[in-house]
Write a structure and sequence with these properties.
Length: 323
């Protein structure tokens, strides 16, 4: 059995792997649950702590195209998230529509963060927002200081960008009106506690449903990567891991379909599962390239529009074979 160190969040689609109900053939997978994605990315890239891990999809694409990237990817996407609900504003800033974000001072954990790339892409395409006019403040949402511990990829045409050196968290800056908005991957701590912090799109669930039905895009946040020297030595592990991730995801989905009792604390879960059948044809979380092609093509397009990559890429070329 080949022992591989693996790091990911504690997601339901990975539960069967984490607790040994599903095992990748020929592999003893040492599962490290870390519910702080940036910590995983920094540990994988900067510290060499793991052989396999989830990884930022935007960084995976940009670093792969720039070369000398020590990982290969398989088309498993442990984290996806619609992002219309992750745009927070100070209601006193006079922002009524997406176009009102132009010329503002906006907080973001890091400019190249996948969630930020998706949000900018959504608002540019659907609302013609001109992001070149925005002053970005980069830093952690929950605490003072930086979000990433290692250098992240930068656009070839630099945005108006400044680090958060205020000694305050981004959440506190939004509450005080020192920045006008935050967009990114998480809800500011002050949301729900401070009356001036609200969502730009209050009815975001309906917007996200409409967005998917129009585009078939379910934004991918993270991809599974394997250390290149580990893969080169034993390329069979890509298929073994892919099959195990697929089996673990299906195990979790089947558990959600048990109707005798609810297996998670969502009171409207049965209605949610009806919606999964209606909108996602029964599988809201497909793996593989083909079923995610519209999403992957859109992400590559946004990375080009935002000058994080300059060349075109064939989606299939991003991943190693898994069959």
């Amino acid at each position: 059995m080949l022992k591989l160190r693996f790091a990911a969040g504690g997601y339901d689609r990975l539960d069967a792997l984490q607790y040994g109900l599903v095992k990748p053939e020929g592999i003893n997978l040492e599962f490290n649950e870390i519910n702080a994605p940036r910590q995983i990315f920094d540990g994988m890239l900067g510290g060499g702590l793991y052989d396999v891990s989830e990884f930022s999809s935007s960084e995976f694409i940009t670093r792969t195209l720039r070369g000398n990237f020590p990982f290969v990817g398989i088309p498993v996407f442990p984290s996806k998230a619609f992002r219309h609900g992750f745009i927070y504003i100070n209601k006193n800033a006079g922002i009524k529509s997406p176009k009102d974000l132009e010329g503002r001072r906006i907080g973001v954990p890091q400019h190249s963060q996948t969630a930020a790339v998706w949000i900018r892409g959504h608002l540019q395409q659907d609302y013609s927002v001109d992001w070149s006019t925005v002053r970005w403040v980069e830093g952690s949402v929950e605490q003072a200081g930086e979000h990433a511990k290692i250098e992240t990829t930068s656009p070839t045409i630099p945005p108006i960008l400044e680090p958060n050196t205020s000694g305050k968290s981004m959440s506190d800056l939004l509450a005080s009106g020192e920045i006008d908005a935050i967009l990114g991957s998480r809800r500011p701590e002050a949301m729900g506690k401070h009356p001036d912090i609200v969502r730009l799109f209050p009815d975001y669930r309906a917007m996200e449903r409409d967005f998917y039905q129009r585009t078939k895009i379910h934004p991918i946040m993270h991809v599974i990567v394997i250390r290149r020297n580990v893969y080169d030595r034993d390329p069979w592990i890509a298929a073994s891991l892919y099959n195990a991730f697929e089996a673990s995801k299906n195990w979790a989905l089947n558990k959600l379909r048990i109707s005798a009792a609810q297996h998670c604390m969502l009171p409207f879960m049965f209605a949610d599962m009806d919606e999964v059948d209606e909108i996602f044809d029964g599988d809201p979380w497909p793996y593989g390239v083909e079923q995610n092609r519209p999403t992957l093509e859109a992400l590559v397009g946004h990375l080009q529009e935002q000058h994080l990559i300059s060349e075109t890429v064939q989606i299939d070329d991003l991943f190693v074979p898994v069959s």
